Amino acid sequence: MANELPFEKPVTELKTKIEELKKFTVDKGIDLTGEILKLEERLEQLENDIYGNMKPWDRVQIARHSERPTTLDYISYMFTDFIELHGDRYYGDDEAIVAGIAKFHGKAVTVIGHQRGKDTKENLRRNFGMPHPEGYRKALRLMKQAEKFKRPIICFIDTKGAYPGIAAEERGQSEAIARNLLEMAGLTVPIICIVIGEGGSGGALALGVGNHVHMLENSTYSVISPEGAAALLWKDSSLAQRAAETMRITAPDLKDLDVIDDIIPEVRGGAHRNVKQQAAEIEKTIEKSLAELTKLSETELVEHRYEKFNNIGEYDIVNDVISIK
Length: 325
Hints:
Elements: H1 9-28, H2 33-51, H3 56-63, H4 71-78, E1 80-84, E2 97-104, E3 107-114, H5 120-126, H6 133-148, E4 153-159, H7 166-170, H8 173-186, E5 191-200, H9 201-205, E6 212-216, E7 220-222, H10 226-234, H11 240-247, H12 251-256, E8 262-264, H13 275-293, H14 298-310, E9 315-318, E10 321-324
Parallel strand pairs: 3-4, 4-5, 5-6, 5-7, 6-8
Antiparallel strand pairs: 1-2, 2-3, 9-10
């Protein structure tokens, strides 16, 4: 199987064996139905064992899968009449962020999301989904426009982080991210944020200040990559798996810490297995969030967002020392 992840090898081998038996049955005219049924039962049990008990590093690998659906993939399934808008009106257009106007169940919304590529050529074009400052300024321009016309904002988060290059820093990368955090906190329309892949550092948070923040089951959301954390903590980036297990970057951990509101279930094996089905699950969550948030007044929306981020996390104070739970 193309792009097979290491922990999926037993599943792939068993599926191959089942296909071989089915082909043998057709070619040779020998009835192997009983053997095939037993193997299919074994396959189901194996998939339950593997996908039902994934470790943090397994989820990191799925979140990074080259075929994982992107913002544009989901837009094509969930929204109609999408019109992409370009440019920040200061410097240029950053293709690592797509943004525009669309209709969701017949109602106008603004859609913004990180966009990475699925092959080398597109990744170079999209800068591997790592935005420059103009990308965040484009996003903010569309958010302010959404506020003016009373459109809900839906953000899809999927980036390793903001681009750390010299040119990005010269054009005000940190200020652009900080400005988004400040402005999003005070917007008077509903904001729904969904982590669909990797949610890396400030580059992700710049689109993540929402009334509701959801995550796909196998996505990650962290202040730094596991490799970066391992390099800082133990001077060895090869210990990324160990870092992933201690950082609490998966959806279940972040749900426990109240960093996110809901975990969106993924199709077995990851969202890339069935994009249409996965889009349907996300659509349900967006519909539910909009139904709840559109009942709030402008003032209540801002207060709701403030309270959400004010209550994130758990900690104890012992002898004037803060201990994060």
